[in-house]
Amino acid sequence: MESSRLRDMPLYNSRIINSFILLVKHKYSHVDINELLEYAGMKDYEVADQAHWFRQDQVDRFYERLLQMTGNPKIAREAGRYAASPDVLGAMRQYILGLVDASSTFDIISKATANFTRSTTYHSRPLASNMVEITVTPVEPGLEKQYQCENRIGFFEAIVLMFNHKLTDLQYFPEIRHLPTIQQPECVFRGDQVCRYIVTWEKSAYTYLKKARNLMLPLLVVANLALLVALQGRGVLEILLGSLSLLLLVSLAAEMSEKRAIKEGLSSTNHSIENLLEQIDLNYNNAMLTHEIGQRLGNLTRLEEMLMDVADIMQRRLEYDRGAIFLVNSEEGRLQLRASYGYGAGELACLNGLDLPLGHESSVEDVYVACLNEQRPFLINNLEQEKETLGLRTLACAIKNGTRAFICCPIVSDGVSLGVLTAENVKTKRPLVERDVSLLMGTASIIGISYRNCELIGALEQAKLELEERVAQRTADLEQSRHKIELQHEELTRTLFELEEETAQRLQALEELGEKERMLLQQNRLAALGEMISNIAHQWRQPLNELGLIVQELPVMYDRGGFTRDYLGDSVARFMKVLGHTSRTIDDFRNFFKPDKESVPFRVADVVEKTLSLVQESFRTLQISVELQVGGDPIITGHPNEFSQAVLNILFNARDAFLDRKIEDREIWVAVFEEQGRSVVTVRDNAGGIPEEIMEKIFDPYFTTRGPERGTGIGLYMSKVIIEKNIPGRLTARNVANGAEFRIEAPGRGGSE
Q1: Is 197 a residue whose pLDDT tops 60?
Q2: Contacts 24+ apart (CB under 8 A), 572-578
């Protein structure tokens, strides 16, 4: 994961920042917490929400500003110690105290750190009954800062002190001098890969008593035997009773100490269970709220019934002290209170008296209007700090009604603002958090759907009445229209018959066109056959001359007496070599005319080289120089023989241009290369180029400038058909300096257009 991307992700749970905030409130009362949070880009309800996470840059700005405001360079370590206090851990602290010892707690902490931080991973292992090793591995080097390492050290100290002192009101411990020893043999801020901590603490009384009980039995046995030998059997009973009494006293003390630790753990676990049950009850009510609203409102068709049911369900299922629903009154152009719960008569009068005009052009600044227009929720835990957002009238009404905190959420359906849903706390001291906003937004969404449902049902009933009136009129119109439909049916039947005939004619035309193309291809092959016969003559002339020379040389060597066995073997070898070359020439020409049965991947350079080999002798006789350049290894999927025929037609076109125009210096340049993932073949000549007035016609069938007695006019046409339909690719032509260039482009490596 890239550093910039990880740095912009939420990495640290709000409970970490909350421990700093509670420490500031406890010890640094002069620090303005609102200013601190604003500088860090945080909201107070985000800190209070245990499901919220902050980014690295937010945490860095928070610590930077806190360091300036407190002037305490050890504030991070102090906050780490304070993180284990009841104010911060709450039910988690009760659960920790329910464990047997600090070593077990560190094991739990190492597994639960994913709930607090995503920037590091923790691993702990016990080294002794009072010693544990904790290894902290960064997810990405260079992300965390050194103050976060110090904060961890303080937290480890707090965990040990909770067990060693068992203070139920533990909040802060500057008075404790015997802090646990924490060694740090490795640290990322000293260049190491991980941070490794070795935490050592004082052993508890239970540990000493248990150890003493285990060692006392063998010691007493040895001591009793020694006394019996020394006293020669006198006082045996007294010695045994005394030793047994001492052993029982120590065992009893160890047992009582162990039971006391277990009892304290059970008590803490009980408190933790009670807190968890309260949270489960809250979650159950929230789930039932959504279920009841969705189940009951789906069956309601009248708006007033729906609003009263929503208010009743919210009052029973939510923990907010009171709530209200405002809906848009389109006729008056303002928000209007339509349903509520938890308000007294005077408080409702205050809400009804609010003047809440709608529209972006309104000069009234009010949180309800802003929530409706902007379609976003507002959460306010401190009325004084958010008085500009609230608006003067709403603020005065909220203060008069004793509101401590409230949420307002827009009621929206299909992108249209319908109203505002609000919830307030008067007596409840718990701060409102993002979870509350999400819950009310879900409720508001269901209200919006039900509102639209009521509107649609009302419109449906009105439409039903109108429909009944129109049915009578439409019945009369239908009879009149029936005759017209019959006429239209006859017209459609006739049109369908004509379309079927036209379709059959077009299919026949397509078949004829396909047959025509096959005939043209065969005609082109026959034309190429004549060319090939001439090329075969050129290809064989030189080998036949060479065979003749070998045969004529035999009698001469015989007369001279040089007709030896070695000479005969050498002559036969040369003879067979020429015959082999001639045989391969026959195979090349035969393969050229063999039809390709299926498309296969082929190397373009190989096909082009074989094509040039078919015409090299005839072109050499005509003094036409052909130069081939190959770059890369382009591969095309198609029919290699057809591709060869297309290239051959282009070469013959250049040859004819040389001969018709009587060009003396005759050169052809062929290039094979790859360009932007495509296979390209270019054939360029210096035969004077193509006249601009016929450039667009050269690929038309039967178009030729040589006359019907000297050319068929289908060579370039068939080349274009082969390249653009069978590959498929593209064949183009253009004029270059002193000549023309034909360019074949096709998908490379078996790709597609």
Answers
A1: yes
A2: 574/546, 574/550, 575/547, 575/550, 578/543, 578/546, 578/547, 578/550
